[in-house]
Known about the structure:
Layout: H1 2-6, H2 10-21, H3 46-63, H4 67-74, E1 82-88, H5 97-104, E2 106-110, H6 122-146, H7 159-183, H8 188-191, E3 194-197, E4 201-210, H9 214-220, E5 234-242, E6 246-250, E7 284-287, E8 292-293, E9 303-310, H10 322-348, E10 361-368, E11 372-380, E12 397-401, E13 405-406, E14 410-412, E15 415-417, H11 421-432, H12 459-474, H13 487-495
Parallel strand pairs: 1-5, 2-12, 9-10
Antiparallel strand pairs: 1-7, 3-6, 4-5, 4-8, 6-9, 10-11, 11-12, 11-13, 14-15
Helix pairs in contact: 4-12, 5-10, 6-7, 6-11
Amino acid sequence: MYLSRYHRSYSKLKSIISRQYSQPALLDQNEYTETPEYPPILDMSLQARKFREREKVYEKIKNVKTVEEKQIALNMPRYYGWQCVMLHENKVPYNALPMIQSYTRSHFIPVDKLPDIYNDVSATADEVVKEIRSNIEDAISFENEGVEYNREISLDVPEKSQAEDAQAKILVKQINRIIINSLTDRVPHIFSTQVDYDPRHEAFWFVGGVDVPNEVVKWRKQYKWLRDRLFEPLDRPVQYLGTPFVAVRSHTPLRPIVPYSEAENPEFKVNRFSYHPETVGYYKQYRHGTNIPGYWPGDRDEFGLLSIHGRGHILARKESFGPEDNEEALHCQAMKASFGWLLAQANYQGFTTYNDITYPLVTQTVITNGQLWSLYVYQLNTITMHNDAIDTNLKHNICYGTKPLKLYETIENGKVQGLNEDVLKMLVQFYMNSPEERDHELKPFLGKEEQVVADIEDDNKRCWLEKTFKHLVSNRPKHLLQPEIYMWEKIYKIEHQTRFFERRRRPFELGIDPYKRRLDEHLPPYIPKAIRPYPKHKKKFETTYYPDV
């Protein structure tokens, strides 16, 4: 009587007793097996437990249904953004090729002609070149000598680089228009393609196996359980930013250049670059990771066909770098641009840096100043290069590229001299390369009914996710400044500890790392009493819909 009347845990105790003394259920015949089955023996070391936790996070991101929610999930661990290694398209330091190849896992193959897959359209391309030759010559002469444009000059970029890119952009648009108009009635896929001018191409991924920064080594020395792991490699978040002159998109992806089964071919292996990116000339910046292929999720034409970029940054490089390094800089630019665009497209198909692609993607990249043209074909076979997969993932990406080829020799008396039809033919073949339907599922990691936020029926959830996603990709600064350690604090409080008499108020004095604040660790918007749902007035804050990652 005392137990049933006064004990607070009686109901719970009662349920336990009832389960313990209830009648045994009939045993399932499948309960017994011929051989004993034991639970798996797990490694309970710290590294193994942390690895299993990370695998759970990877699986949660994989199970997120929509593209926008996956992008929000990638940024969930960092409220102020990741400390990203910034790879700008038009900034290539000296001797950057080994690092770019390693960070994009790209095997480069120099070629003098296009791969054999382009031979199918060689005869038609010859006919097109003969038809458009005169139009191309007129466009080149007119845009170079027939008209002058007023250009805005930026103080951040050398004037000669801006002038070359501006002139090349105008010419590229004219050549793109001429080729597309001539191919519309010959090639079916050209009629339905979309052309983007100055689109925004961004990509975000993690690279493992990189040397640990000195500040991380100092932090690890403070803890005994980390002293045997002082130089254990870390993941480096990498962000690519680029803007081509012209990008052409299609509804279906291009055909693979190399069979996907050969992605693990040891001949395509790339040497790992483990040094700090600062040693090459690439620096870090706090920002949210963004994957943008030049359009919003849900667009019909979501696969890249061709992108054309400028090479004005070559003029801003030092003469001491030499012509060989300038040529390698073009290869670096092509690999960054191709990998970045395809990675962003893969993210819109539901793949992420933690969940590798299940089929290859191909794009064609052109770098030009109007006269010199470099042509590249890039096949993306893998996007997973983080620390847990850097040694187990044997796939590599492949890039075919040519040297800078002259489209024409000179312009004399308003006429183009020495137009190279072979270069023009290769460019026409890029446009004629037909995309094809795949016989496999393109979006295996997205939901069946909900693949983008626009598919969500709940109005509140749909509007909130769209607003949050667009705010993240805008990378606007927070309403409060990021926390920082002032120089006098670093000298007197951290390195020498001479101000021990002061009260500890700063985050680093309380053992708090503000940069590890999660994206959802903030107070939701307040709901005034006048607009709270009737008759319940207790809900003071709006509902948030962050993914459970």
